[in-house]
Amino acid sequence: MTGRFAVGDRVRVRRTAEPETINPRTPSYAKGVAGTIIATYGVIANPLDHHQPYLPLYTLRFLGSDIASPDASHVVIAEIHEEWLEPA
Fold first, then answer.
1. How many CB atoms lie within 10 A of CB 55?
2. Domain architecture of the chain: domains with CATH
């Protein structure tokens, strides 16, 4: 399964996953923040601790000014699963 989003898409990280998930790996600092997808990985199989594969995984690039402070000039990179993302 490929994902809903592609490299270059602007997305926002939801404050809660949809559908609801037990995947806790989304960083709290990114919730509610918009970023740009810079890589896609599709569905991730995780047979060691899940009965079903995770939804597609993406690498996002965030501006530090959107996460830290208005004068921040760095970028933040995070990998986030699809259930946490919506179009920005």
1. 21
2. 10-87 (2.30.30.50)
